[in-house]
Write a structure and sequence with these properties.
alpha/beta; three-stranded antiparallel β-sheet; 15 helices
């Protein structure tokens, strides 16, 4: 074989190798594993995160997210503090109390812009305001859930220890329905609906909102910020972890925007996660959760400084905190950066809730 032929064959081999290299699929970088600790079991309270998994938003950001469900014995912020999850959801006063106790927790995204806590009574009881709770059997949850109620009582000049009878209630409405308490603490998206899912023995039909009265702590002025995303300062200081946090938030925000704009599909994603309550309850819950998020005047996830200050003030007044947290307790830069990578309506200024029909037992 002469040199010219050899050179031609070598060229063909090289060309073939180049074509093969071009045709070979590019190797995808492995997804970064991330764990999110919830406050409770699967339900529409966490719909945006489940939607972000189901709709591939986390995957598109190069993340492999595992959602860890909560339970009565799980304290989400402590799971983060102990390294059991990169991100966790927690009410602001609870996490700040842990932070004051030494936990290295940082609020990186304030998803819920308002409180979902109510005090619910039957309209026939005549409890139309906080002042009307005087002398009544008032149900609250403990474990840090009672602070909005106690602060409202004190603001009205009522001592929770002497002017009312405080009853620690289970996380349901059985004591109110049985008449053992005159008013019960409830979340707009859960326990309030549980009453409306029960049959009124006097009418034979489900209870209706006009048969109940609610005290909304957003109106009273003692509302405290609730579901926020937290991480530890130590985690965020690790190489590349701030970028992971931004990508996690961006995908989560896409999930919440999806749940606002694609209500039925989002409920389907939640139901696929296996909630313990039925479809109509999950629909009610998502509708109420959307109300807590939208509108987000500064963009979803960005802290409202005035509501942070109110939450801190109520926490100090109630003895949850002994002093104001330092400036590092929350940061908005990661949420702001996540928003910069989003298209669509990130504020929900024109958001309007839908009407949901509850069914007996929430089915």
């Amino acid at each position: 074989m002469n040199y010219k032929v050899l050179r031609i064959m070598s060229g063909l081999v090289v060309a073939g190798l180049l074509l093969a290299a071009c045709a070979a699929p590019a190797t995808e970088a492995p997804a970064t594993p991330v764990r999110l600790q919830l406050q409770w079991v699967a339900q529409s309270q966490f719909a945006g995160y489940y939607a972000a998994v189901a709709q591939g938003f986390y995957k598109a950001e190069g993340l492999d997210v595992t959602i860890l469900e909560g339970a009565p014995d799980i304290v989400p912020q402590q799971v983060c503090a102990n390294g059991g999850a990169e991100f966790c959801l927690s009410w602001v006063p609870k996490a700040l109390q842990s932070r004051e106790g030494g936990a290295d927790l940082v609020n990186i995204s304030q998803v819920f812009q308002r409180s979902g806590t109510l005090e619910v009574s039957f309209a026939a009881s005549g409890i139309n305001s906080v002042a009307d709770l005087a002398g009544k059997n008032v149900g609250v949850w403990d474990f840090g859930n009672e602070h909005e109620v106690f602060a409202a009582l004190r603001a009205e000049g009522l001592d929770p220890e002497t002017d009312v009878t405080i009853k620690i209630q289970p996380f349901d409405m059985t004591l109110l329905l049985s008449g053992e308490i005159d008013a019960a603490e409830a979340m707009t998206y859960n326990e309030y609906a549980q009453v409306l899912e029960q049959v009124n023995p006097a009418t034979g039909a489900l209870y209706t909102p006009d048969e109940l009265h609610v005290i909304n702590f957003n109106d009273v002025g003692t509302a405290m910020l609730q579901d926020a995303v937290w991480a530890t300062g130590a985690y965020l200081s690790g190489a590349g972890n701030e970028d992971v946090a931004v990508r996690f938030l961006r995908a989560s925000y896409k999930g919440w925007m999806f749940c606002r704009d694609n209500f039925d599909a989002c409920v389907t994603d939640v139901l696929a996660a296996g909630p313990t309550l039925g479809e109509s309850h999950m629909r009610w819950q998502l509708n109420e959760i959307n109300k807590l998020i939208w509108p987000s005047p500064n963009g979803i996830g960005v802290m409202d400084a005035a509501l942070w200050a109110q939450t801190v003030a109520v926490s100090i007044e109630g003895g949850v905190l002994t002093k104001e947290p330092d400036a590092a307790a929350y940061r908005t830069d990661l949420a702001t950066k996540a928003l910069e990578g989003l298209t669509g309506d990130t504020k929900g200024a024109s958001y309007a809730p839908i009407t949901v029909e509850l069914k007996a037992g929430g089915e």
